[in-house]
Design a protein that fits this description.
210 residues, alpha/beta, six-stranded mixed β-sheet, globular
Length: 210
């Protein structure tokens, strides 16, 4: 299956087709209340080919950011998946890019890091979706406590409600394959959603700036 220059738009269409994009009124975790849109990228794991291709989209995006004259993302030795949703994305990416993976033990009662690593190795954190950024911040702090270097995080989708700025304050650059605004623009331009949901969702983003 050949990938195209519009791989991120393929991803937006696929998430819609898999039922991973819903409209209504949702409370998402501790940071987002009254959102008119709900995203569930974990539905990708039920479709191996889609997950495989999503990993290639991530690989293409990261490679492009690393190859810019003014590099937008550092090279790294390891990828760290954020439990639990980020584990699937990070595993697929690790297999695609041939970059070793580590992850934090899901229990909050232990700081154990699963996998093989050495102090001062560079790690990029990976997750499927970011809202407020709490899980990424916690992951970064625990990795840094183990003397690993964390400067970048990459997510499949950024909901654009504060995570980017929060991570920037910690010296972490957040990048994504898709933003919520890109998804909305694609769905609207393709005639898949009506004006009402588009403008409600766009207004929500603008009232909760990144």
């Amino acid at each position: 299956m050949a990938l195209t220059d519009n791989s991120n738009l393929w991803l937006a269409e696929t998430l819609w087709r898999l039922g991973a994009v819903e409209f209504g009124e949702f409370t998402l975790g501790r940071t987002t209340v009254g959102s008119p849109i709900y995203l569930n990228p974990r539905k990708l794991i039920a479709h191996p080919t889609a997950l495989w291709r999503a990993a290639h989209v991530i690989h293409e995006e990261i490679s492009a950011l690393q190859s810019m004259r003014n590099r937008q993302m550092d090279y790294f030795d390891l990828v760290a998946g954020v439990p639990l949703g980020g584990l699937h994305v990070a595993t697929a990416y690790s297999l695609t890019a041939k970059i070793p993976m580590i992850y934090l033990h899901p229990s909050r009662d232990t700081s154990e890091i699963e996998g093989v690593y050495e102090p001062n190795q560079r790690v990029t954190i990976m997750d499927d979706l970011v809202t407020g950024g709490g899980s990424l911040v916690e992951t970064a702090e625990r990795l840094r406590a183990a003397n690993l270097i964390v400067k970048d995080a990459f997510v499949l989708i950024d909901r654009q409600v504060g995570a980017k700025e929060r991570l920037k304050k910690l010296g972490i650059n957040l990048r994504s394959a898709l933003t919520l605004e890109v998804i909305l623009n694609y769905l609207m331009s393709s005639g898949l959603i009506d004006d009402d949901w588009y403008w409600k969702s766009l207004e929500f983003i603008r009232n909760n700036p990144n």
